[in-house]
């Protein structure tokens, strides 16, 4: 099994495959991790995925350090993560944090400000601990799906592998080589994210400013600049960002003769190019993360969407390799992830609509700003951004089915998430006679039963990606066996059980 790309998505996928028992390697063309500035924070499903694999303390430490770095630009001690819509910052004080969806996923609140570079370092350690080799300086240049495996051409020679997953970013070579179409909408603007030395920073207002040319943001740390210029999109997206280019764009947008004297670190160029792969699977080749979908970073969704892909795909592909995957399991990857990807593309497109500099967009922006100044409006947007409302359409009548499992505290003081570090399914069993555990006994090895003495819900079957596959509020095991067979495969059931 080969994963192409050691970005956040490739690393999460490699780890999940290893936990599912697959032999996996990662091929990465860069000799060192990328230095470019990208994602600043993670959403609830990503934080909960880290939590289930025992990585929450490390992520919380990153958040503490990040908030400290933000210093006076941040709100000291306030780790409530809200985000923004087209630069309209969502006010944490307006959010109804008691909303049942938000309150049900509060345990990871200490790990939301986790910048991409630190996240990748944390994931690289995780992958190393699992013994997965990451071969750096190896670029994939060709592939041939032979039906029983994939012959992969690389700059270090040919590799034969059972399955190939392209987690190789928006310009994915794997997607191109597999002949997968990438339809969508063209970019309208060029954006930059950089930290710069600025001779006269007092000329820039903190926060977001909209102008007829686009928008810019100064902060939330000294020298950090984000720009959006409606210029038809970048001519060359991969050329390194220069100081002169960034300064010129910032001056055009702001109309201020601000002077940048140096770039600190690697600046990023981005756009609102929005595309989704026509299929996430072609034979033995699959796509995940930016390789499967690209869009503007407004609302901080791309990394999170990709990590969700990796969590969804990892255990399914692992089950195929291990030989116990139920019929059609791998096809559920595209079916379950595509609608969410399409939603994210539209969420970012909607923001482009209110960011344009013309009078109609400005009027629309005011309407949205008014809505976002209400408790209901802000709470709605924060729920969408945080991922707590994500739901997959799965068989089963309980309201939890298809949702990410909420925080579930157990009588011994642990949380259900604490029992998921090794991967696999979790079955919470609160029946007095452990009836659910007995029913699931034939799936031992794939399903870990967690007995508990609290009352409600009485039973929950959680897939390895954190999605609830079955739940019951009573000792009635109705539907549990069917759910186990549907997701965890058919097993030989002992007669006389
Ligand atoms: C300015 C900016 C801000 C952002 N902010 C956020 C945010 O706040 N929240 C959020 O969720 N997302 C954000 N994103 C999006 C996020 O950065 C991406 O969605 C994320 O990096 C995707 O991860 P990935 O692993 O799919 O791809 P990448 O991170 O692009 O990793 C792909 C890897 O594959 C390697 N590779 C490429 N081709 C080959 C090849 N042929 N052979 C071998 N290796 C190859 C690359 O070197 C790279 O290491 C932001 C993006 C930008 C640009």
UniProtKB/TrEMBL annotation:
InterPro entries referenced in this protein's UniProt entry, alphabetically: FAD-bd (IPR002938), FAD/NAD-bd_sf (IPR036188), RIFMO-like (IPR050641)
SUPFAM superfamilies according to UniProt: FAD/NAD(P)-binding domain
Keyword Magnesium appears in the UniProt entry: no
Keywords assigned: FAD, Flavoprotein
Classification via Gene3D superfamilies: 3.30.70.2450, 3.40.30.120, FAD/NAD(P)-binding domain
Residue span(s) of domain FAD-binding: 3-347
Cofactor section: FAD
GO molecular-function terms, A-Z: FAD binding; oxidoreductase activity, acting on paired donors, with incorporation or reduction of molecular oxygen, NAD(P)H as one donor, and incorporation of one atom of oxygen
PANTHER family, per the entry: BINDING MONOOXYGENASE, PUTATIVE (JCVI)-RELATED, TRK SYSTEM POTASSIUM UPTAKE PROTEIN
Name this protein carries in UniProt: 2-polyprenyl-6-methoxyphenol hydroxylase-like FAD-dependent oxidoreductase
Organism whose genome encodes this protein: Kutzneria kofuensis
């Amino acid at each position: 099994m080969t994963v192409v790309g050691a970005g956040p998505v490739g690393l999460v996928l490699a780890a999940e495959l290893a936990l599912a028992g697959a032999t996996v390697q990662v091929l990465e063309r860069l000799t060192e991790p990328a230095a470019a500035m990208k994602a600043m924070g993670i959403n609830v499903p990503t934080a909960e995925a880290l939590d289930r694999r025992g990585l929450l303390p490390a992520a919380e430490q990153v958040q503490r350090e990040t908030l400290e770095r933000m210093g006076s630009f941040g709100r000291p001690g306030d780790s409530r993560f809200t985000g923004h819509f087209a630069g309209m910052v969502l006010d944490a004080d307006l959010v109804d944090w008691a909303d049942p969806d938000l309150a049900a996923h509060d345990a990871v609140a200490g790990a939301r400000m986790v910048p991409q570079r630190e996240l990748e370092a944390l994931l690289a350690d995780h992958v190393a601990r699992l013994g997965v080799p990451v071969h750096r300086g190896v670029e994939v240049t060709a592939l041939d799906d032979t039906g029983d495996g994939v012959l992969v051409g690389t700059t270090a020679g040919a590799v034969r592998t059972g399955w190939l997953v392209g987690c190789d970013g928006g310009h994915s070579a794997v997607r191109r080589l597999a002949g997968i179409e990438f339809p969508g909408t063209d970019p309208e603007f060029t954006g930059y994210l950089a930290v710069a030395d600025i001779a006269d920073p007092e000329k820039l207002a903190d926060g977001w400013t909209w102008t007829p040319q686009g928008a810019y943001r100064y902060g939330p740390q000294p020298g950090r600049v984000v720009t959006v210029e409606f210029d038809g999109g970048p001519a060359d997206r991969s050329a390194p960002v220069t100081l002169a280019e960034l300064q010129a764009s910032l001056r055009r947008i702001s109309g201020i003769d601000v002077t940048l004297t140096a770039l600190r670190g690697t600046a990023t160029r981005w756009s609102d190019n929005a595309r989704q792969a026509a299929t996430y699977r072609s034979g033995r080749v699959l796509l995940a993360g930016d390789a499967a979908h690209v869009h503007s970073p407004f609302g901080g969704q791309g990394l999170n969407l990709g990590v969700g892909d990796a969590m969804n795909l990892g255990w399914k592909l692992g089950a195929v390799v291990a030989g116990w995957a139920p019929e059609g399991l791998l096809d559920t990857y595209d079916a379950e992830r595509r609608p969410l990807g399409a939603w994210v593309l539209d969420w970012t497109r909607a923001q482009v609509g209110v960011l344009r500099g013309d009078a109609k967009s400005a009027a629309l922006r005011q309407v949205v700003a008014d809505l976002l100044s209400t408790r209901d409006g802000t709470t709605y947007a924060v729920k969408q951004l945080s991922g707590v409302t994500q739901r997959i359409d799965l068989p089963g009548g309980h309201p939890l089915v298809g949702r990410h499992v909420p925080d579930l505290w157990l009588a011994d003081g642990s949380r259900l998430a604490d029992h998921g570090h090794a991967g696999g399914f979790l079955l919470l069993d609160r029946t007095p006679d452990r009836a659910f555990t007995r029913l699931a006994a034939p799936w031992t090895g794939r399903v870990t039963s967690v007995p508990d003495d609290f009352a409600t819900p009485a039973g929950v079957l959680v897939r390895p990606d954190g999605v609830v596959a079955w739940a019951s509020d009573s000792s009635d095991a109705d539907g549990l066996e069917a759910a186990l067979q549907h997701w965890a495969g058919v097993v030989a059931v002992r007669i006389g059980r």
